[in-house]
Design the sequence.
């Protein structure tokens, strides 16, 4: 598969590194030579120094026979123009990163498709949805709904109050139990567990269950004492903060702390009256005390600086805030943030990559999410009639090491799987992949 990426900034560079590992034919275009020089020499890709909106550059890159053209430069207009040009030169699919929320409205999607843009991606909107999921369940690090919530994946940090520590999974998570443990992060190690593995104190465990059993998972994980989030302090008033605040439910009381006075004035104009905007520094402990940090259930740090966000979340925890969420765009800090017990970590590059990646798979893939904490992907595959996975029960299918089935949705009903489960064509199947070439996983469903 041939892929052209226009823009060698944060998202483009990360995408190039991620996709090159999967042996795709990658060409990266950027007009700034310094951006291209930052690309690791070990990565197998071709770089072209040129404007992404140059017709000659797109022709030289081979846009006419490109499977996917991705425009993720910092300039929205360039992304739209480059995708339109690539489409008319022959690119099969195009993706443009945009900054205008108006473009994401459903009634505008057909307009952009007529221009030749297959998908629009607004990373801040995608990040806002993850933040909202983190706020709705203060005791969960990460939540992912499958097929509208028929199945639910919950990433939970295990403390002393957890009732299922140090017991073999085959004894606590068997075929008749209402949950499966599909992945474990222990220190810096990712484990795709078997029946003899056990859960340990401070593990980050990923539970697959159905919506009805979420209260049961909360009980056995020892999280019933966590209060629901009502009062929220957001540090930083950038685009991600705006998109997040706009979709937070009405029952949440929200305060946004922003250092820049002009930005505060703009926030006051675009946010609802019930959302309080405060001009100040979210690291100022006197200000936090004055604004009621001790009675706050969630602290969300969304400044452009990862170190600032991490330190601010640590300070909030010292004041007793249970739920902290930090934007950490620098991958070098992700593991550190996790080891410091920050809570939910938001990385727009990883979120955007998950969204774009599903366009690369030939199987009927409804959704893909990159689980940054365990460096793994979880995807919803829909098998076709006669595919490998529909021919035998799961116990008789030899999956690659690091690939496991989390559950499936048949019709509108979510269900967990056992060795005797027979997957049928048309099911939505949740698949975990850790260090597995996604094309190998895809082959089971085609």
Sequence:
């Amino acid at each position: 598969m041939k892929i052209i990426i226009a823009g060698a900034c944060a998202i483009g560079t990360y995408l190039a590194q991620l996709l090159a590992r999967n042996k795709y034919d990658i060409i990266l275009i950027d007009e700034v030579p310094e951006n291209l020089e930052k690309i690791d020499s070990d990565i197998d890709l071709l770089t072209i120094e040129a404007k992404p909106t140059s017709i000659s550059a797109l022709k030289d890159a081979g846009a006419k026979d490109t499977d996917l053209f991705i425009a993720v430069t910092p300039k929205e207009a360039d992304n739209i123009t480059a995708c339109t040009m690539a489409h008319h030169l022959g690119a099969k699919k195009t993706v443009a990163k945009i900054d205008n929320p108006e473009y994401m409205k459903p009634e505008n999607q057909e307009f952009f498709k007529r221009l030749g843009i297959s998908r629009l991606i607004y990373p801040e909107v995608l990040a806002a949805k993850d933040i909202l999921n983190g706020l709705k369940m203060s005791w969960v690090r990460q939540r992912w709904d499958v097929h509208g919530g028929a199945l639910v994946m919950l990433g939970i940090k295990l403390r002393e109050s957890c009732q299922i520590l140090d017991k073999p999974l085959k004894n606590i998570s068997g075929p008749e139990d209402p949950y499966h443990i599909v992945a474990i992060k222990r220190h810096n190690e990712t484990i795709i567990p078997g029946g003899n593995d056990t859960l340990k104190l401070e593990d980050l465990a990923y539970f697959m269950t159905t919506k009805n059993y979420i209260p049961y998972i909360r009980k056995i994980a020892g999280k019933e004492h966590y209060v629901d989030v009502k009062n929220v302090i957001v540090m930083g008033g950038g685009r991600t903060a705006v998109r997040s605040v706009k979709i937070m439910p009405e029952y949440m009381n929200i305060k946004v702390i922003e250092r820049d006075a002009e930005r505060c004035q703009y926030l006051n104009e675009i946010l609802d009256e019930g959302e309080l905007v405060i001009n100040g520094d979210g690291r100022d402990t006197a200000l936090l005390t004055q604004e009621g940090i001790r009675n706050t259930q969630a602290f969300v740090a969304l400044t452009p600086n990862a170190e600032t966000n991490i330190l601010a979340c640590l300070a909030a925890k010292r004041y007793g805030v249970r739920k902290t969420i930090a934007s950490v765009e620098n991958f070098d800090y992700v593991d550190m943030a996790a080891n410091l017990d920050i809570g939910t970590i938001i990385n727009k590059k990883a979120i955007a990559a998950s969204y774009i990646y599903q366009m690369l798979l030939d199987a009927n893939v409804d959704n893909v999410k990159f689980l940054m904490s365990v460096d793994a992907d979880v995807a919803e595959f829909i098998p076709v009639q006669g595919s490998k996975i529909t021919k035998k029960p799961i116990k008789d299918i030899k999956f690659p090491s690091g690939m496991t089935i989390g559950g499936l949705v048949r019709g509108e009903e979510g269900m967990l799987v056992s060795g005797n489960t027979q997957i049928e064509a048309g099911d939505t199947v949740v698949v975990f992949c850790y260090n597995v070439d996604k094309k190998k996983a895809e082959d089971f469903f085609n």
